[in-house]
Amino acid sequence: MSKRLPEFEGEALEPARDVSARDIFSLAAPQGSVLKAIRAQQLEVLVKLVPITVFTQALAAILLIFALWDNAPHIQLLVWGSVGIGICVWRGFRARRLRLDAEYRSRKPTSFTHVTRAICTIAFLWLVPPFLWFDAASADAQLYMTVLIAVLLSAGSITMVTVPPAALSYMLVMLVGAITITIKIDNIPMLLMSLIYAASLTWAITANARRFIGHARARLELQEKGEIIELLREFEAAGSGGLWELDHELRIVHVSKDLAGSLSRSPSETIGVHARQFLDPTGRIVNLSSGMRSLFESLEKGEEFKDVAIPSVDSQRWYSLSGKPMRDDRGRIVGWRGVGSDITELRLKGDDAVRTARTDPLTGIANRLLMRELLEEAIIGVSENGDDCAMLVVDLDRFKLVNDTLGHAIGDQLLCKVAARLVKTVGDGGTVGRLGGDEFAIIWTGPSDRAVLAGLALEIIADLSRTIEIGAADLHVGATVGIAIAPEDGVDEEGLMRSADLALYRAKNEGRGGYAFYEQAMFEKAEDMRLLEHDVRQALAQDALSLAYQPIVEAQGGRLVAREALLRWNHATRGAISPETFIPIIEDAGLIHRIGDWVIREACAEAAGWSDGARVAVNISAAQLTGAGLAKTVVSALATSGLEPSRLELEVTETIFLGDDAETLASLERLRALGVRLVIDDFGKGYSSFGYLARAHFSKIKIDSMFARGAAEGDRNCLAIVRAILALADGLGVETTAEGIEEEAQAAAMRDLGIDQLQGYLFGRPAFPEHSSVAPLAKRA
C-alpha cells in the first residue's frame, strides 16, 4: 500500500482556497459533498436565528402601527400588521419544526431559494409604510419610521448573514424603503449616507459569508482527510492507493487520479456517472461475476464491503474495491467512500497482502478465492470470445486414512506432493488450485472436448495413484474427478463449480478412482433432494411424520411376539415416500437425533398400552450411536412410559461397524446394560465382521429379505448363506427373524430351515395406531 495520502481530486481533498462569489450568492444546489455540507450548516445557523428575527420583525410592526394609528386608516394598518405578523408567526413555527422534527425536515427541507423568497416577502411588506403612510404621518411618526427602517436594515444584515442571498436581497429591498424616505423629505446627504451604508453592509455580508464558508470548508476538509486516512488504515490489506466517492444515488462524485488513470479515464470523465453504468455498462458482467453481484448487493443494502474483486468490462484487468457508507445524523446513507486498486498483476505474483490472500498457505498454489476469480475470467472469455473452459474437481480417495494413521504433518506433506504433481500434469493448459481439505480444482482453458478432458482426468488419476514417498513411508491415495464444461454445464462461476461438484459426487457413488462428466439429470436429482429436505423440515413442523407398526410372529406357532415401529411420511403432493428416500435426507440435514428420540419415546409409550405384551422394535442409525445421548433418551422413554426394558428392541444395520468400532461397541454396551435387546438388521447384506456379533452381544439377527426369498425359491447360494447364519446364531445363542415373507410357501420354507420368527406382508402390513401416545414431534423439539 502507498504510505502517502493519495491525492483526491475535487473539492473534498484540495487545500482550502478562496471562496468565490458563486459559492456565496448562488441559489443553485451546490456540487460536491463539502459545499453541500457547508450549505447545510449555513441553513442550520439561520434556522436557529429565525425566532429572534421574526420576533424583532413582529415587534417592530406592532410599534409602527401604534405610531401611525392617528395618521393612517385603521383598516389598512390592521390588514398590513396581520399579514406581516402572520408571516412571522408561520416562519417561526416552521423554523421550530425544522430544528426539532427530523421527519418534517426530511419531508419538507429548506433551501437558499426558499429562505430568500421568505425574507424578500417580509422585506417588501416594509415598503408599504414609506409609500402609503409617510406623507400623512406626523413628524414624530416620520422620525420613528426613518429610524425603524435604518435599524431593520442593519439587523437583517446581521441575523441573515449565513445565507448571503437572503441577507443581500433583504438589504436591497430595505434600502429602497430608506431611499424613498430620504426623497420624500428631500434630504440629499441622508440619501448619500444610505447608499454608503448599504455598500458597507454589502461588503460586510460578503466578507462574513466568505469567512464562514472558508472556516467551514477548512474544518470539513480536515475532518474528511482524517476519515480518509482512517479508511486507508482500515482497508490497508487491500493494498489500495486509489480513492472513490459516490453520492446517495450511487453516482460518482470523486475519483482519485491514481484510480482513474488505471481505468484509462480522467477524473472529470467519471463525475456524475452511475456506478453500475461505469463498471458494467452492458449489464453482462454482473451475470457472470459473483464479485460484481456482491458489490452491487452491498451498495443496494447499505452494507460495508472489503476487498471485493471485480473484473473490468473486457475482463483484462481486475480491481479490488472496499468501501463503507456515509450517513447523516439520522442514519440515512448520503453517499459512499472507499478505496480501490488494480490487482491484476499483484494477485498472481508478488509478496504483498493481495497475493497472500489468494494463495493456499500450505501448498503455495491458488486458493479458493483466486480460483473463483480465474474461473470468472475464463467464463467471460467463453462468453465474449468463444474460448474454451472446463472445471475439474479432484478429490483424494484415501487421504483421511493417512491423516488418521500417520498424523497431520505427513498429511500436509502429502497434499504438497499432490499439488506439485497436479501442476506438472496440467502444465500450461490450466491453473491448479486447492479448494480446501483434500479437494483440488483445475481451471482448464485448453481444448475442452470430452475426449481431451477424459484423457486429462485419466492422467490425473494415474499420476495420483502412483506411490508417493514421504520420508520412509510409501503412500497410496488415488483420486476421483468430476468434470463440467462451460457454457453448457454452467454460464457463471457458481453454476460451473456446482456442476463439477455434482459430477464428482456421481463419480464417488460409482466407485472411487474414476471420473464423471456433469449431466443435467444430476442437477435435477440434487434439486429434488433439496426440495425434499425443505419438505421434511416442514413435515416436522406440521407433525406430518408418523409411526406404523408391523407384526413379527413366531415361525412355528404364529404367536405375535413383537411389532416393528416404522417411520412413515405421506407427502401432500408426492404421496407416500419410502423411508429409504427420506431417512438419508434426515441424516444429512442433521435431524436424525431429534426424530430418532421422538420415535423411541413414541414407540415406548405406544407399546406400554399393548395388552398382548408384545415387544416393540425401533430402528436406530449409526449417527445416533455417537456419545451417550441415545442411552439417556432410552432411559427417559422407558421411565416415562413404564415399559419394561426387555420389551424394547433396538435394531441396527451392519453399516454401524464402518466407523470407529470402539466407540460403536461402547455405545451398544451402554444400551445392552439398560436391559434392552439389540438386534442386527439386514444381516448378510452389508459389511459384517463376525467378531462384532460376539463383542456386541446381540439378542437377534434379522436375515435380509433378499436371502430369505432366495432360499425359499431354492437358490443354492441363498440357502447356503441362510444356513450359515442359522448356524452362527445357534452357536451364539441368539434368535433369528426372516424378513419380507409375503407367501405361505416362503413361510413354510423358513420354518423348515429352523427360523425362529417371521415378518412380512403375509402376517400384516404396517398399521397406524388409533391414538397417539405422546406429544407431537414438533412440540417435543
TrEMBL record:
UniProt keyword list: Membrane, Transmembrane, Transmembrane helix
Signal peptide extent: none
Domain PAC: 301-355
Domain of life of the native organism: Bacteria
InterPro entries: Biofilm_reg_signaling, EAL_dom, GGDEF_dom, PAS, PAS-assoc_C, PAS_4
Record-annotated GGDEF domain positions: 387-520
Residue ranges crossing the lipid bilayer per the database entry: 45-69, 75-93, 114-135, 141-161, 191-209
EAL domain mapped to chain residues: 529-780
Keyword Calcium: no
Xref: NCBIfam families: GGDEF (TIGR00254)
Protein name as annotated: EAL domain-containing protein
